[in-house]
Specification:
Chain lengths: 452, 452
């Protein structure tokens, strides 16, 4: 239906209709056909094959790892330290990498070959350190449309990795005339905490409630920045509601502090429109960070960051003498992938599949366990938390599950203050498990835990 | 001829013959044919087509650059600041990038496609931050054979760029219980000086003589490290002789200091066998740095570094929580490129061509200018220095050359102490100029400068 017809039928302006269409297109719900208009896309989730977790499929590790496939990802590394590692894991809720099937290998190979044919002469030309204008323009368009991020192309910096984005943030923040303290979520991502500490910043644990960071506690802190995961707090899974987002933005402006927004799970908001990013509420004081790696290929190694405009001069002083952080032969295919609309279509497919897995997992857990467990963090992201309503330790839950062939992860490592740890809670990541395997996996969990 | 026959004829051990063959193979003088033996390779330099400099061929810059091709490389950026930039440059001795023709595009494309067919399952597997074992093993083998570098695979770190290697070196050196002073060559690479300064290190200019760094001056300094370019000092072009290399190694051991060896031009030693790296003389105190970018593709973005063994624990503490610095889809083709012997063959071809260009340039300069100029730094590398024997300023030489259509570079920017600058000296980089164009370019230079 044309935007004019919709506008007339609903008595709203054509701009509003256009914006709504743009949003639907960005989220991959509708597709654009040249000179014809927009069409709703259908997708049958069950049509996708169900592989087993990559961890047990593709790894070929020779360093003494004893997990089924030798995977060296963080979750699996943590697993190794567990006494139960010798058990055979049949269903693995510990891997945060999507299934190999989902990676757009054929499209990527086609685009790389296209670069060799059509952009070969660009290979020899020296490249800009923060990325090619073409790719940065595509990213700027996408995050503006999908996450309301308000920035220029010049503010976008491509790097290899989220942790490297944080390294740059630290270098930009450190010379400020303040104590180098940074507030981090408690519990929160341990990898990022390590990066802050390695860069000489002091970590200040930040209290959380059911809406995310507690502003009154944050206000009392003397920090130059707060590191937040508002789209799906890790590990609690809280999605920060809009009023709290506004409070965070107001805090940053009042205290002359910065927000470091790690939006890694923004693509997986189920049943609701993603809330606007913190960056959209406080553009001049927010570092916005996101990544392509976990959704396209883990090995693509492209993350990006939006740097507040007033820090651009310092950014250039620090890095203009460097070579590009990301190779041209990665940037150009990604630019073409986005330009051809493949990125949004890929996102939609992956989101729909993950949503189906999330629903299936929640329903299976509720059906089997009834009121004997609580589930949290399932409205978004790629993982949820399970809290049994009986007294049990995290270790006991994990060991018991592993003995039954189900891999689940601890969350105690994400707390800085050990006394604050929630006991008897485990994390189930469904990124790397197939939809069809979820009911059987939950059955095994139920059999394992009913005896406790 | 078999190694046994050679051994018998020359009355030397077969091991010596084998070592000599390995060295010839590493340098690309001989090729190995399976089950047949080694064959001397012939190469007709004149058979290669002669393109014009990339700077004026492939660039398509839209940022207001007025150089002929819009190239944004460091040398050309410096050129922009010159008043003569509006002149049309016909022959350009300012570009340090090789000609597009030399890049092994077809081989690279074939190897990437091979990765999609044969290593697709590896795409999803999380990767080691410092690089894949396969590629690091190839690099270890090559630098051991070609540069006598003595290290394990674990000591090799792949990064995107030499400057990023230096960032890591700074982070490893800074916590030492000493003043963070680093000795740098005077004159020397300004890019590297900026990196040291941005990382909080203090720069101490180090006196040079005709053999490189003056040890007596270095000994008086209180520094944690000395940054050196012994294969072809930039910009003077001095190749550090073996006795001086031994003195540097002895200094590092005596003073408990580190050597940062930037071996960027080691591939271009003409008429002589490359001298052993400083790392081979002082393995436990040397960071050895080199790059693939300028020789394979400028856009490949792969440099590497050998980290002294005793600093590996700290290296892992700092970066183990990061993603890989270089993408798998760059690492794997490079590993295959090296495994198939293409790297050594490519190096040999490029070296032979650059050697021919160097000889042609020196001969042309001597023929035209006779005793009125001195030439230095032409025994290695990709550039040489021209010092007119009459009184003239650098600016006058450059402007006059540019007006005649020849691009040459200043060297005054490479000095820290302005009073030490050598006046009336310019730098001619022949990496990006075609062999056949050199006589005509020198003729133009002669016509331009004879009137001064």
């Amino acid at each position: 239906m044309s935007s004019r017809t919709v506008s007339e039928e609903l008595h709203i302006s054509r701009n509003t209709v256009k914006l709504a269409y743009d949003q639907l297109f960005a989220e991959g719900i509708i597709a654009s056909v040249q000179r014809k208009g927009y069409y709703v896309e259908s997708l049958d989730v069950d049509a996708f094959p169900h592989n087993t977790c990559l961890c047990s499929v593709v790894c070929n590790c020779a360093d003494g790892c004893t997990c089924s496939g030798g995977c060296v990802c963080e979750v699996c590394a943590r697993k190794k330290s567990s006494e139960t590692q010798k058990q055979d894991i049949v269903y693995d809720f510990r891997c945060d990498k999507p299934l190999l099937f989902w990676f757009p290998c054929n499209q990527w190979q086609r685009l790389i070959n296209k670069c060799f044919h059509e952009y070969r002469e660009d290979f020899a030309c020296p490249k800009a350190v923060f990325g090619e204008t073409g790719l940065r323009t595509e990213i700027q368009r996408f995050i503006h449309s999908y996450r309301d991020v308000d920035c220029t192309v010049e503010q976008i910096v491509l790097t290899m990795d989220t942790q490297f984005c944080l390294d740059i943030v630290c270098q930009l923040l450190k010379p400020m005339d303040k104590e180098p303290n940074v507030a981090v979520e408690e519990p929160g991502l341990d990898q990022s905490r390590i990066t802050f500490q390695n860069n000489g910043l002091r970590i200040c644990p930040m209290e959380l409630d059911q809406h995310g960071a507690v502003i009154s506690a944050l206000t009392k802190m003397d920090v130059i920045a707060a590191y937040l995961t508002p789209s799906h707090q890790f590990p609690t899974g809280v999605v920060m509601p809009l009023p709290r987002r506004n409070e965070v933005a107001e805090w940053a402006m009042r205290k002359d502090a910065y927000i470091i927004e790690d939006d890694y799970n923004c693509y997986f908001q189920y049943g609701v429109r993603p809330l606007p990013s913190l960056q959209s509420l406080c553009a001049d004081r927010t570092f916005y960070i996101n990544s392509f790696s976990n959704i396209l290929f883990p090995c693509i190694n492209v993350s990006y960051m939006v740097v507040p405009e007033k820090l651009l001069a310092r950014l250039h002083n620090l890095f203009d003498n460097h070579g590009p952080f990301v190779s041209f032969l990665t940037q150009k295919p990604l630019e073409l992938f986005m330009k051809e609309g493949l990125w949004e279509s890929h996102l939609r497919k992956v989101r729909k599949n993950q949503n189906a897995k999330c629903e299936t997992l929640v329903n299976a857990l509720k059906n089997r366990f009834g009121d004997s467990i609580s589930i949290s963090g399932s409205s978004a992201g790629l993982h949820l938390l399970v809290h049994p309503n009986w007294t049990v330790t995290e270790d006991a839950l994990i060991n018991c599950a592993h003995q039954a062939g189900v891999g689940v992860s601890p969350i105690s490592g994400y707390w800085i203050k050990p006394e604050r740890k929630q006991d008897g809670t485990v994390l189930l990541n469904y990124a790397g498990i197939a939809l069809k395997d979820i009911p059987a996996a939950v059955n095994l969990l139920y059999e394992a835990w009913r005896e406790m």
